[in-house]
Amino acid sequence: MTLAASIWNEVLAEVQSYRLDATDPLPVVADACRQIAADITRTREAEALNERGESLSDDDTSWLDNRLEELLGTGPLEGFLRRDDVENIWLFGPNLGVLGLSGGRQERMAEPPFADADEMVRFIAHLAVTHGQTGRRFDASAPLLDLRLRTGERVFAAMEVCGIPYLTVRCHRHRLIRLDDLVGGGSLSADAADLLAAAVRPPAPANVLICGALGSGKTTLLRALLGEIGPHEIVCTLEQTFELFLDEKHPYTFAAETREPNSDGEGEITMEELARRSLRSGADRVIVGELRGPEAATFLSACGTGSDGSMATIHASSPRQALARLVRYCMGSGLAGAQSALIAEAADVVHLVVHMGSDPHTGFRGVRQITEVLGAPEGRFETHDIYARRQRTGPLERVGRPQSPELVERLVEGGIDAATWSGDADL
After folding, report:
1. Domain 83-173, what fold?
2. Tens digit of pLDDT for each residue in 29-59?
3. Is the pLDDT of residue 135 over 70?
4. Hey, which of 64, 132, 290, 329 would disulfide with 147, CB 3.0 to 4.6 Å?
5. HEC states along the chain?
6. Residue 12: which pLDDT band, with cuts at 50, 70 and 90?
7. Domain spans of the chain?
8. Are 19 and 33 in contact (CB under 8 A)?
9. 179-421: which CATH number, 3.40.50.300, 3.40.30.10, 3.20.20.80, 3.30.950.10?
10. In this prediction, what percent of the chain has a pLDDT beyond 70?
11. Mean pLDDT of 304-322
């Protein structure tokens, strides 16, 4: 074993032991760990020089410094989080780790990230206390953890309720993304991108619902659409965990996220409460990262009371299912009325539904349908596809022109030349 490797083994053991028991703020703990490493390195190198005439080279020193900084970031995960191609990290117990890479590829970790389940749980508990935007617990009394790291990654972990500890980390590699980037990657055609851009631009933006399965690219498309909002618009974003990062590029953003209750069961702020209070924010638009329940009623209300250009994502496998689920979520709210009235209201205020899809075989993610909502005669949603992929892996094609006069007017005000649809008589 080389001198650098033997020093690192001792540093790793001492630093990990100190970190897992430390209660000081993260910067204080990091500085203390660096001092521990420096002391061990100086002592062991002096011993090696005295006994064998051996010392550390510049490369050895650099290697030790890099390993330590990785450890002080997010421990054994830091190296993966630094990679631009890693989008997801899954740990199935201490010995099996899988990386989800861009393009849908997967890569198994070459070495077990933890020695045993106990070490894995202790590490996650430390992560929860020191690396989140707010401190959280992870122990037998709080076996489920939903956490956003200070660097933006989203963490979910579980213990006790499962056979072995589980950890997943979702990395947001495309914080600043434009519709042109999606066109370049094949997720969207150029003319479909023009239509969506016109639909969400001022002065008369449409209300848009984005649907799809988990990991289909809903949030990525929403980020790209937010790039088209006007520079002077006031925007309110509501999320379970921050993933849109609009405030990093748009100064007039009120970004809010839910909050879990503390260890005494107090202080919880639900998405429904955030959504309800957001109507008092005076925002031009209300953006909901994901509709999951009664907050849908508030979103629908925002769309119909002056917050044109509001957008949200929802889990659904088709535009029709997305609209039906929106209504079902509204029914769970105390503000909800009769189902028929909710259907009519949704059909009146939601202008476009964009369906995202993914191919597990190729890893492709992209828009499958762009559908306009025409109304709800006899209590049933009437929709019309403007763009669709005729085959699952085929190109996104225009299959119809907008039929709603209101949507056409909004698109024209957003910059679309309606004359380009004059040759679509055969669609």
Report:
1. Beta-Lactamase (3.30.450)
2. 778 888 999 999 999 889 988 888 888 898 8
3. no
4. 132
5. CCHHHHHHHHHHHHHHHHHHHCCCCHHHHHHHHHHHHHHHHHHHHHHHHHHHCCCCCHHHHHHHHHHHHHHHHHHHHHHHHCCCCEEEEEEECCCCEEEEEHHHCEEECCCCCCCCHHHHHHHHHHHHHHCECCCCCCECCECEEEEEECCCCEEEEECCCCCCCEEEEECCCCCCCCHHHHHHCCCCCHHHHHHHHHHHCCCCCCCEEEEECCCCCHHHHHHHHHCCCCCCCCEEEEECCCCCCHHHCCCCEEEEECECCCCCCCCCECHHHHHHHHCCCCCCEEEEEEECCCHHHHHHHHHHCCCCCCEEEEECCCHHHHHHHHHHHHHCCCCCCCHHHHHHHHHHHCCEEEEEEECCCCCCEEEEEEEEEEECHHHCCEEEEEEEECCCCCCEEECCCCCCHHHHHHHHHCCCCHHHHCCCCCC
6. confident
7. 1-74, 83-173, 179-421
8. yes
9. 3.40.50.300
10. 91
11. 91
> How confident is the model at residue 133, as a pLDDT?
58
Residue 309: what residue type? G
Residue the block writes with tokens 């539904």: 353
